[in-house]
Amino acid sequence: RDYVSIAGSSTVLPFSTIVAEAAGKRPGVKTPVVESGGSSVGKKGACTGIGTENIDIGNASSRMKVSELDVCAENNVEVTEIKVGYDGIVLASDRSGPELDVTREQLWLALAANVPNAEGTAFVPNFYTTWNEIDASLPNIAIRVLGPPTTSGTRASWEEMVNEKGGCKQNAAAKAILKAEGKSAKTCRPLRTDGGYVEAGEQDNLIVQKLQEDNSSFGVFGFSYLDQNSDVLQAAKVGGVAPTFEDIAAGDYPVSRSLFFYIKKAHVGVVPGIQEYAREWTKHWGEDGILAESGMIPMGEDERAVYADAIENLPTLTADMLD
Amino acid sequence: MSSDLLLIVLLGIGAAWFFASRRAIVSQGQSRGGIKAMHSLPHYYGFWAAIAAVIPAFIFFVVWSAAEESVFRSLAEQYFPADRADDFRPDIALTQIQNVVAGIRVGEVPAWVDEAALAWVRWDALASNALAAIVIGMAALLGFLAYRAVNPDFRARNWVERTITVLLAACSLVAIFTTIGIVFSVIFESIRFFGMISPMDFLFGLKWNPQIEFGENAGVGVSNYGAVPLFAGTLLISVIALLVAVPTGLFSAIYLSEYASPRLRSVVKPLMEILAGIPTVVYGFFAALTVAPFFREFGQSIGLTVSSESALAAGVVMGIMIIPFVSSLSDDVINAVPQSLRDAAYGLGSTKSESIKQVILPAALPGIVGSVLLAVSRAVGETMIVVMAAGLAANLTANPLDAVTTVTSQIVTILVGDQEFNSAKTLSAFALALTLICITLVLNIGALQIVKKYREQYD
Amino acid sequence: MTKPMITPQIAAERVARGVQARYARERRFQLIGKSAIGLALTFLAVLMTTILIRGIPGFFQYYVQVDVTLDAQLMDPRGDQSIDSFYDGNPRKIMQGAIYGLTGAEGRSAKKEAFKLLSIGGTDRIRNMVVNDPSLLGSEQNLWIAVDDDVDSYLRGHIKRATDEDNRRLSDRQLDMIDDLVDRGLIQYKISNYLFQGGASRNPELAGVKGAVVGSLFTLAITLILAFPIGVATAVYLEEFAPKNRLTEIIEVNINNLAAVPSVVFGILGLAVFIGFFGFQRSLPLVGGLVLALMTLPTIIISSRAALKAVPPSIRDAALGMGASRVQVITHHVLPLALPGMLTGTIIGMAQALGETAPLLMIGMVAFIVDTPASVMDPGTVLPVQIFMWADFAERMYVAKTSAAIIVLLSFLILMNAIAVVLRKKFERRW
Amino acid sequence: MDMTLTTSEPVLTIKEPSSVTEKTVGSVHVDNPRMQAKNVDVYYDDKHAIQDVTIDIGANEVIAFIGPSGCGKSTFLRCLNRMNDTIDICRVEGSITIDGKDIYDPSVDVVPLRARVGMVFQKPNPFPKSIYDNVAYGPRIHGLVESKAELDEVVEQSLTRAGLWGEVKDRLDQPGTGLSGGQQQRLCIARAIAVSPEVILMDEPCSALDPIATARIEELIHELSDQFTIVIVTHSMQQAARVSSRTAYFHLGKLIEVGPTKQIFTSPQHELTQDYITGRFG
Amino acid sequence: MDMTLTTSEPVLTIKEPSSVTEKTVGSVHVDNPRMQAKNVDVYYDDKHAIQDVTIDIGANEVIAFIGPSGCGKSTFLRCLNRMNDTIDICRVEGSITIDGKDIYDPSVDVVPLRARVGMVFQKPNPFPKSIYDNVAYGPRIHGLVESKAELDEVVEQSLTRAGLWGEVKDRLDQPGTGLSGGQQQRLCIARAIAVSPEVILMDEPCSALDPIATARIEELIHELSDQFTIVIVTHSMQQAARVSSRTAYFHLGKLIEVGPTKQIFTSPQHELTQDYITGRFG
Ligand SMILES: Nc1ncnc2c1ncn2[C@@H]1O[C@H](COP(=O)(O)OP(=O)(O)OP(=O)(O)O)[C@@H](O)[C@H]1O
Ligand SMILES: Nc1ncnc2c1ncn2[C@@H]1O[C@H](COP(=O)(O)OP(=O)(O)OP(=O)(O)O)[C@@H](O)[C@H]1O
Ligand SMILES: [Mg+2]
Ligand SMILES: [Mg+2]
Ligand SMILES: O=P([O-])([O-])[O-]
């Protein structure tokens, strides 16, 4: 194989392809082939098998877990972790619709499959139908949020950051019930399936368009779609912070995550162009770069320097680095 | 010798034996009293010799080429350094060697890799020469033997035709192998799935809600793998699609075949066929952004709550897509109803519509069933429209105004989305596929029985 | 003999009584037929109009006229006119100079904003110019350079000045610059030369369908080369040679069933067999073609069998009676007569293959592939996949590009059908 | 007996009827005509298939049309209930009346016409429906019966008259296509008489049947002849002789001779008729 | 003359040939047989379509097979060049020889057999090719000619012998399907004789033709009879009388009577033959 093969997160894909395209402009370099598939495909792909029938680089919108790194170890594969930037997950609606300023806890109550009952004694299936039932300050419209299906990493991140960390772990009643029942806060993650949350497929553009058809609905998607459609969409503030470029980069916006790719070290020096592709990232991942232009939130200077260095030296990712 | 060139040479040898044998038989025949005295026409002798020369040699070529690389790879292992580091990876080393052979040098290349690559190039040259020699030799020899065997009593035509028949039969096995391949590519995963989820729960469970079950999320949510809502959703959407496609398609077919002038028919039929060729993404957008809001607003205006994702919108648009399946195929079938039945009906004083409704359609029923089945297959297999317009929520409902999802769209969503190969969620896609194939099989056998039963009835 | 209960007179009366109503029913029935056709054609018209209205703009885009000097220093820093040297060059500087001149931008932020009006395709373009023809070094060129996709969207009216400045991707200053350029006639709406010459790109203004069209061609060629002969051979065997027994019945049910298998399952098969077992690379048009061929096969077999059945037995009898062998009967008489019907099935099958994405997802053809494949063994993608991916990119300008690609796909389809229809006509020479 | 063997040498010259209009030999008119054709010409596009035929069909008679292949027997027969309307290129000129009313008059409806003038075809063509539904089809579409009981009775009567009741009464719900050829043809006759037509047209109704089945149909025709007017086209002179009282001889689109069957077969007057009868051709 | 009118009452009782094997009346053997069928039985699945038929076909004779519809004439004819092989459910027992060689011997190739025993069908079925190619087809596939010139000659000769050359010589490259019915049938005969068969089988070759065309074909059969053995199936006794020297009468699968045509038609010996000849049925 004389081209780099990349697969993984659909969130990283747009940025990865921009870099791939730029890398391919060099004479004699074949443009890397970038496939989608989801973060776990990227992480797993990076960790399975050596040889040209396997991918060289896996993209991921969430960091590798120790358990996932174990797969690498099992397969005797060493990978290098490169962080490239951040992505915010936004809740947005049509500009003609009501503005929303919610906390993660309120979002959890609105969208979780199970919420504490009124007495706070047990989890019951979500009974909220309008936003103002959760808090009087919220608008009196039906809860209807369009978002990705269970096969999406974006959704998994949302569930973790909103339902678990921002919801159950903050809510006194929930904490009490969890403790009483001896369950972990993870069990708060699932989203409701009764129509308040609508699985709309992994077509974010379609969600954007549907929001314009129905201005009382909200949609969950990546920051870049908001960025491109800022004239028609308005984002809900979460915890009082609007998802702006600066606030996500500064880490103030609570629902954001890091984007990574993992290099299969053994392929470096075998498949041509791997390191060249990685280096190409460093040219574009700054505040003025084309990636920011497309909606990726850049890292700070220092972090960029760290990972630029990693690209040159290819340190092997180890379990203690992950903790 | 490169394999392209070798194949050309092989064809050349075949051609040479073709002409040689043909010539030989003609001159042999001359002494016996012309072509009439031979068993077969001269070119059959030619083809026989060509077949003898080319086909075995070609099979040898294919087998050799398939085996070559793995032989080289095992040979190359002798070049691996004796003192291997712990992290020495044979497969990567082999890739490296092959890269060097292909002229790709990345970074610094160890000396032994270069050596191995050089050896590889030697073997390659040797092997390709050997292969060329063997293939050419085989072709020449077998061709020669066939050429020698040529005599006017030799039943060349029979042999050539037997070869052709065998080839044809071999082709018909492709369909069988495809099925076997499909079953094999889903069965192991399905078995693993049924090891995790009981088949009873899967087949009769009423709730479908698989959660991501790996990584951080392992064991977090409660997954449900009851496939009933998916099959019910498939049924609901297919029924809606058929409610649109069958009347429209069937009435179009009837009008085109029984009333319309041939000219109108020749224009309208291909026009309608375009509907089947429009990419489904387009239908998806059409369904999600035009039809669904229309239904929602219409519903609101008469006091119904219609969700933006509704089976209705997806079904209607899917129905439009499959109209041509019903119209074109039914049109052919209706045309094929024997004129004698029409005559019988007209002879009794039926109006045209009476004869169509009571005689022609019943007689054409098997074919119409066939066309509808094909349309159903297409509807069942469709994903994009469903995902975009009906959502992915597995509601068990018969209300067409609700969001539902279908088996195929779940399969695609699961396989395309974030996945982990050992999670029940991913495996469930294979189990769904297997179940779906079994169901269509039963449907097809049923349809075949219907067709058989009715086929006995007329003519 | 019994006296008839209903005499002809009574019969005549009763018939006459009902006849008006029956004719009314007849008229209604015809009307339903006409409306059905009308409805189907209306759907078609609506869809086609939507596609055309949305897609036509995708064939055009906005270009800005710039004067550049291909400065040798900047373009060829090593001065040896080698490819490497050109790629080390800095054509960006040249473009910057040109656009600053045009807009009169002063100051860092203004300059930055001015430069953003241009597509980055411009720098590539001038580099390619000198790579292809080094003698141009140092010359002055008057070029039409594509504008950036945001500018394009503004000019198309998708981005409006009325929107709050914070909420749009172009600043007021940029809008002023654009309006000024338009007033001076330096920005024009022209046929896009990227659409057909460009490969996949993440810059919507540079994105084109060339790679996908070539990929589709390769894939469909493989599909056709495999599916048509194998399908016809299978049909001939089953129809003309195979004994009618259990095995052939199983084959028949099996083929019908294959026609009903969802296409994504063929993708699973392709992944398991061609990539897993035979070890082909992912994303190859060869593998895509193989998978689509297996998918198309049942359609071709079923329609070919119908066509073979329709050949009048008298022709077979005539040839057999002359002492033709079975193979001769088939090759001399039956196949030529059945070919049109076989082509019909092939049209339908190929049309479906042309529009498929689901099975290709499984074998890695749904991927971002920039380079146009040069052979069936190079990674490639196909038109519907391109459409599918473009439809999901965030940048606005992809909406028009997507619609244009849909038109390209439909043209491809109509062209393919037209060829088949012409072929069919040719063989249909009814004697 | 020796007429068939006048020569074993082939006959080389077949005369065409002279192309100037030549009057049909014999008496074309009858006293109590049910149908009357006057100067009928039929064209298939340019092909002049029937040329100036004038003939009466008497009430309750059995008339046979004979003549060599392609002479227009079927064509003329199909004009009598306007079945030719279904052929686009077919054009009929002249007048054909039933009980004095022109059936080609624009005001005439073909539907009731065909109910009055039924038709039985060469190849038995039962509908792919049950035996009962086959017979009930006509009464149903024409609304001839008021109740299910009445319909049952019509079906039974028709089948009885077609001599089929005994054979099928236990399996009325089985498909008509499952019957033997002869039974199918009788079913088609039953179907035709179920609408109480005045005239039944039969186009070579026995040509696909074996002799035993043929004999039954002939017997049936004989029985039906006292209630219906029957026009039968046949290739077999023997059959014409057996079943008909009048015979019309067609030749290349012209009606050459008409007369009582006995007379046509024993003393044909026109040379062509004679040649045909004596087997010089045909 | 009065035989056709022995009765105008329908005949109700058609005797079946007794089912115990009954010997065929008349002399089934000839002095110089070209083909010989011995105790031939043919079955379609269970249906016993031909029962124990033994008959010789003499060299250069014209033999006619007559009998009512469905009696097995076509079935037996098609056994003679193994055209029945194409029907899956058809099974032939007994022996049929041509020039003493059993044609059902497993070692026999049907291809050359059918070149020796040609066939002309009921409905003219020219190939959808040019007139020239229709006639040239046989010589080409059997490799009968060495050169184009020779082929041209064979085509011309065959068309001339089929009496068609004059009519088509200027349009040999036009489609054979464009000819009239009678011309098409002569083309099919030309096509059959182009391979110089020894025997020509004709299954009702004139039934789709008008009398003028029929006369030409009969004339042609007459002319061909001095070079070929011709077996002709016909529905028309007159035609049998005109063209054949020997006639075989079949009835419900049995060969009832064989004899010189003259004798069969003037003094049939078997009762069934007599009934058929005198028009009591058929
Ligand atoms: N649909 C048609 N289109 C054109 N010509 C036709 C059509 N039907 C019949 N003819 C021609 O009209 C003439 C009379 O045909 P018709 O079928 O009436 O003859 P016929 O006497 O019934 O012959 P047969 O005994 O073979 O049934 C023939 O020359 C025939 O070719
Ligand atoms: N392919 C077949 N399958 C089953 N039965 C058949 C088949 N062909 C003929 N038969 C039956 O065999 C018997 C003899 O048929 P055959 O065609 O030989 O009769 P025939 O004398 O030629 O009649 P006709 O004068 O109508 O041509 C008939 O009862 C017929 O139904
Ligand atoms: Mg007729
Ligand atoms: Mg026959
Ligand atoms: O594809 P994901 O980024 O959602 O994992």
Automatic annotation (TrEMBL), chain B:
Q: Which InterPro entries match?
A: MetI-like, MetI-like_sf, Phosphate_PstC, PstC_N
Ranges annotated as spanning the membrane: 6-25, 45-67, 130-150, 162-188, 230-254, 274-295, 301-326, 359-380, 429-451
Annotated ABC transmembrane type-1 domain residues:
231-447
Q: Which CDD domains match?
A: TM_PBP2
Superkingdom = Bacteria
**GO cellular component terms attached to this protein's record:** plasma membrane
A GO molecular function annotation here is:
phosphate transmembrane transporter activity
Give the GO biological process terms. Answer: phosphate ion transport
UniProt xrefs under Pfam families? BPD_transp_1, DUF3708
- Where is it chiefly localized? membrane
State the membrane topology. Answer: Multi-pass membrane protein
Family statement drawn from the similarity comment of this UniProt entry: Belongs to the binding-protein-dependent transport system permease family. CysTW subfamily.
This one is known as Phosphate transport system permease protein
Q: Which organism is it from?
A: Litorivicinus lipolyticus
From TrEMBL, chain C:
Q: Does the keyword Zinc apply?
A: no
Gene Ontology process terms (BP)? phosphate ion transmembrane transport
Transmembrane in keyword set: yes
Return the PROSITE patterns for the record. Answer: ABC_TM1
| Species for this entry | Litorivicinus lipolyticus
Subcellular localization: Cell inner membrane; Cell membrane
Q: Keyword set for this entry?
A: Cell membrane, Membrane, Transmembrane, Transmembrane helix, Transport
Q: Which family does it belong to?
A: Belongs to the binding-protein-dependent transport system permease family. CysTW subfamily.
Q: Where is each ABC transmembrane type-1 domain found?
A: 213-420
Q: Which PANTHER family match?
A: PHOSPHATE TRANSPORT SYSTEM PERMEASE PROTEIN PSTA, PHOSPHATE TRANSPORT SYSTEM PERMEASE PROTEIN PSTA-RELATED
Q: Name one GO cellular component term.
A: plasma membrane
In its UniProt record, a GO molecular function of this protein is:
phosphate transmembrane transporter activity
Entry protein name: Phosphate transport system permease protein PstA
TrEMBL record, chains D, E:
Renumbered to this chain, the signal peptide range is none
Q: Which PANTHER family does the entry link to?
A: ABC TRANSPORTER I FAMILY MEMBER 17
Q: Which GO terms describe its cellular component?
A: membrane
Name the UniProt key words of this record, in alphabetical order: ATP-binding, Nucleotide-binding, Phosphate transport, Transport
| SMART domains for the chain | AAA (SM00382)
PROSITE patterns hit by this protein:
ABC_TRANSPORTER_1, ABC_TRANSPORTER_2
GO BP annotations listed: phosphate ion transmembrane transport
Recorded protein name is Phosphate ABC transporter ATP-binding protein
Record keyword Translocase present: no
> Which InterPro entries does the protein's record reference?
AAA+_ATPase, ABC_transporter-like_ATP-bd, ABC_transporter-like_CS, P-loop_NTPase, PstB-like
The UniProt record lists the ABC transporter domain at 35-277
Q: Do the record's keywords include Lipid metabolism? A: no
Give this protein's Gene Ontology molecular function annotations.
Answer: ATP binding; ATP hydrolysis activity; phosphate transmembrane transporter activity
